[in-house]
Amino acid sequence: MNFPTVSRAWATPLLLACFALMAGTGVLMFLHRHSPLQEEIHAWLGWGVLAAAVLHVAGNFTLFKRHFAGRRPAVALLTFALALLVGTSLLRPVSGEPSVPALAVQTLARAPLRTLAPVFGLSVAEARQVLDNAGLAMADDDTSLDAAAQGRRDQIGNGLKALAAAARPSPR
């Protein structure tokens, strides 16, 4: 059976381009300077990197075999990477309980506006204005951030950040 040959002339540049995009969006995500679209691109581009890497290896298979022949450090590194991937895939959290910060954010996000505003030292009207400026329209005083943001975590985070920025310290 003859397999079609893969052109190294485009397989290698394809892999480099996919890697450059993955690296760029990964760094932006690490620094929390990414857009939701960049996060989505990063997630889906992982498949592009995988496909490009397979094509790259297929197009350079003879060179790969020659490169790894008798090179124990390279083989050991690849073996370690594979073992790390398999090992971390088998690990599961000890409990399915969310973290304390996640619970706090969930609680704030689900609280009605009339309950949430005083947490930040704001009146309901002030909190409504702050959230409106942040792009979250609150239908009434019983609406929660979660409902106004329709469950979008990034919008909930933006609303909480806006409230925190407008917060007045409570008198001691």
UniProtKB/TrEMBL annotation:
Domain Flavinylation-associated cytochrome: 10-60
Keywords noted in UniProt: Membrane, Transmembrane, Transmembrane helix
Pfam families linked to this entry: DUF4405
TM annotation in the entry: 12-32, 44-63, 75-94
Superkingdom of origin organism: Bacteria
Membrane listed as a keyword: yes
Official protein name in the record: DUF4405 domain-containing protein
